[in-house]
Amino acid sequence: MSISGPFTAILVRDVKVALRSGGGWFHALLFYGLFAGLSALAFGPELSALSEAAPAVIWLAAALAVQFAVADIFARDVADGFLYAISAEEESLFGYYAAKASFVAAAIAAPVVLATPLVMAMFGAGPGSITGAAMLAIGLPGLIFLSLFTAAIAAGLQAGGMLAIAISAPLVAPVLIFGVIATEKLLASQVFWSPEAMFLAALTLILGAAMPLFTIAALRAALE
Amino acid sequence: MHEFFNMGGHGPYIWPAYLVSLIALGALYFSRRAALRREEARDKRETDA
Amino acid sequence: MEQNRKRVFVKAFTEFSNPAKFEALARTVSPYAFGVFLVAGAIGLAVSLFFSPPDYQQGNAVRVMYVHVPAAWMATIAYTFLAAMSAIAFVWRHNVADVAARAAALPGAVFTALALFTGAIWGKPTWGAWWVWDARLTSVLVLLFVYIGYMAVWRSMTDKARAARFARIVALVGFINIPIIKFSVDWWNSLHQPASIIRAGGPSVDGSMLTPLVTMLIAYTAFFVWLVLTGVRAELISVRRDARFRRAPRSVSTVRTVEGAVSDA
Questions:
Q1: What interface predicted TM-score (ipTM) does this complex get?
Q2: pLDDT tens digit sequence for A147-171
Q3: A91 and chain C in contact, CB less than 8 A
């Protein structure tokens, strides 16, 4: 029982749908840019205020962008019966999950990370812009796992994504907190592997280990 | 007596803390008890009827 | 010997999973739990307010500790209980465990809110601030949201069996918050005081203060037990009524089982 069978098929399907839908996957990047831009306006023209706010704005924008873009990723497949078909054919939903996670990482999260140096530079982060993006790249997978969990709950709840986001918000909080502190330390003292950065990496690993199980359980519950 | 109520100046902190705790726990108690009584009454009505 | 112990455990486990037997057990135990609460609560209140000394640093403000710490303690205990019950329900599809978890949710949320409220009141005269965003306070606030989210899942759909499946998962995922609360004050330099009761060297709180504290802890715990037992009893009666009204059973034996279990009790 290999995951490569359904994995590639589902991944290809998602990519085709994304391309056909004319850039729905683009929304995360769009939200990210808009949030950052509006924050810059809100904070005012003083570069010192902006560069102080940069880590917080980046992380908040990225976390929300990924959450919102991923929110309905499973609901669609539940609604049109695709998930049901997969669960009937395959013993384990892990291949489906892996395909979805890969798609989100490549099409939704990667653009955000790639755009980060530019956004940080506009916030006056200077040479820290590149390493700041690397720090985001460490924490973002954790947020991807969380967003997928949120999406699975949202697919089952039908009352909506907002409750699902509220449910996973408590877990997003630690990632945000550590991500911001790690980035602040990085920008202030050029130390990449601060204790907070290490904790952030640990969080991503823990979430990667734990969340798939719960997400798949939630998907099965959504199918009932 | 007044000294006890005043608690060395900390009265306005201590009494609200204790009172709100008492009220909150009381509310839990009464609502749970009422819910149980309600269910038992309905159950009794339906099995006796 | 080992076989016997295992048999006893399995028997106890199945007793608990049988709604009728659990109802009978709950009915017996709950007056005692309430009795313990009344006695410990009365003694605890008296000692907290009258018979204990003011702190040499905080003065009388320390008395808030005797309602704050038990509330905070129960907030985490209640959630641990809720998560444990959810885990049992998740693995064994144990309906009574689901009901027990749900019964613990509102009490837990109230304890959490009380902990935050009394904590703020204690913080003002002792630290000078009603609230700070330090690790422990923030994670307890997060716990309150986790409780609310959990309750919202149950209320979000009328099919309670389906709701149960999501509620279990949400409860388990939220459990990560508990170790964060426990250890946050040790991991970070934090305004909130570090562990002073359950720590390696034994309690660092003075005996004259430990007494009212422990008494109130016992009172709050007993009260929580009563709340959960009473909540479960009410819910099991309600479930029984629902089953009775579904007069089109998929099999006759289902109805007979329920009625039979009731008359056995």
A1: 0.91
A2: 999 999 999 887 667 788 888 888 8
A3: no
Q: How many beta-carbon pairs below 8 A join chains A and C?
A: 61
Two tokens, residue C261: 């279990």
Nearest CA to A138 among A193, A189, A96? A193
Minimal CA–CA distance to B15: which of B24, B25, B5, B23?
Answer: B5
- Between A37 and C78, the more confident residue is C78
Mean pLDDT over C25-38 rounds to 94
pLDDT at A4 over 70: no
Is there a contact between A159 and C156 if contact means CB atoms under 8 Å apart? yes
If you write DSSP's letter for every residue of C20-83 in order, what string do you get?
HHHHHHHHHHHHHHHHHHHHHHHHHHHIIIIISPPBTTTBGGGGGHHHHHHHHHHHHHHHHHHH
Q: Are C239 and C23 in contact (CB under 8 A)?
A: no
Say whether residue C42 is in contact with chain A using an 8 A CB cutoff: no
pLDDT band at C200 (very low <50, low <70, confident <90, very high): low
Query: Of C60, C68, C241, which has the smallest distance from its Cβ to B10's Cβ?
Result: C60
Residue in chain C lying closest to A152 (CA): C166
SS3 state at A159: coil
Residue A201 has pLDDT above 90, yes or no: yes
Measured between CA atoms, the residue of chain A closest to residue C180 is: A174
C207-245 helix and C65-92 helix, angle to the nearest 10 degrees: 40
CB-nearest to C60 from B8, B29, B33 is B8
A48-70 pLDDT per residue, tens: 888 888 999 999 999 999 998 89
Question: Which residue's entry shows tokens 């997400």?
Answer: A215
Residues whose CB is less than 8 angstroms from the CB of residue A106 and which lie 6 or more positions away in sequence, other chains included: none
Helices and strands (H, E) in chain B, number of each type:
2, 0
Q: Is A198 on the interface with C (CB under 8 A)?
A: no
pLDDT score at A34: 92
How distant is the Cα of A202 from the closest Cα of chain C, in angstroms? Answer: 14
